Amino acid sequence: MTYSIELLSEGNAHQWEEFNNQSREGTLFHSLRWKKVLEETLGSNLRYHLIRDDQKVIGICPFIERSAGYFQGLGDTPHSELNNIILDNSFNIGQINDLLSLFAKECSFLHFNVYNSDILDRIIYSNFPGGETGNMMLHLKRKSPDTIWETLSRQTVKRIRKFEKEGFKIQEIVRRSDIGQFYQYYVKNMVHIKGEILPLSFFENLWDFFAPDELRIVMLTKKDVCAGGTLALMDPTRKTFYYEYLALNRDLSQQYTPTYYLYWDLVNWAWDNGYEKVSFGRQKRDPNNPRFQHKAKFGAEHIPIHSRWVIFSKTVSLLSRLKRTLSRSP
Question: pTM of the predicted model, to two decimals?
Answer without folding.
Answer: 0.91
